[in-house]
Amino acid sequence: MSAIPPILVIGDSHSSFFGGTETILPFQAAAPLRGPVFEVHHVGPGLAASLVERESENNTRAKALNALRGRDPATTRAVILCFGEIDCRFHIVRRAGSDAFGNKTRLRRSIEVTAHRYLSFVLEVALAGFRPIIFGPIATTLLRYEPPYEWPTLGSTVERNEVTRELNDMLCTLSMPHRIDFISIFECLIDHTLQTRNEFYFDGVHLGRAAWPLFVNAMQESSPDLLPLLEASSLG
After folding, report:
1. Looking at residue 146, which CATH number applies to its domain?
2. Residue 51 domain-assigned (yes or no)
3. Is the pTM of this model over 0.85?
4. Is residue 2 part of a domain?
5. What is the band of 1 on the pLDDT scale with cuts at 50, 70, 90?
6. What would the 3-class secondary structure string for the chain be?
7. Looking at the domain assignment, is residue 236 inside a domain?
8. Residues 81-122: pLDDT tens digits?
9. Could you list the residue range(s) of the whole structural domain that residue 100 is in?
10. Is residue 235 part of a domain?
11. How many domains does the chain have?
């Protein structure tokens, strides 16, 4: 029987970043991807805000809890949670209403709803004895998803990156009193005009191997004890 990878990753399609190849892991796989360091559970197009809902369109909460089931916290060094990009691209803005970008107060409150709902689930993971790590949502894609796509892109790239920056800032602030590790490479993924730097993405949406050094540097600041594991992952 092969050794159980010490770091569990649970998330939407952006969790594929930890899979070691520039491909999107299937989210209906019979078994998660297991490497020497990471066990990756791609739970489908799940929302950060849906992690507290017992029933959602994607059943995100149930899938995330199922990934934790059977894992021993004593032998699991960390649980990296990778959600939020879809929230920033569409759901936060939709919740804020038709004039979301013209009403900053309403938009900020919608971001707060997502941040608090996400953190609530993160604290559940901690309560179960695990060490959760939030990997903050990355800069938004330059590509656009238009209707009839179920979750069309709302706002400009800059507007969506403003939302993403705000959610990252809130998650960082909210996690600190609870001593939850928070990792973000968002600021490295944008230029001075808040445009997304596409050279870090392999398909225009998901991070490629070029972004791995950014993650390692961010991990060094927030979770330096895990660096030896990253060096053994062969993802660099």
Report:
1. 3.40.50.1110
2. yes
3. yes
4. no
5. very low
6. CCCCCCEEEEECHHHHHHHCCCCCCCCCCCCCEECCCEEEEECCCCCHHHHHCCCCCCCHHHHHHHHHCCCCHHHCCEEEEECCHHHHHHHHHHHHCCCHHHCHHHHHHHHHHHHHHHHHHHHHHHHCCCCEEEECCCCCCCCCCCCCCCCCCCCCHHHHHHHHHHHHHHHHHHHHHHCCEEECCHHHHECCCCCECHHHECCCCCECHHHHHHHHHHHHHHCHHHHHHHHCCCCC
7. no
8. 999 999 999 999 999 988 888 899 999 999 999 999 999 999
9. 7-228
10. no
11. 1
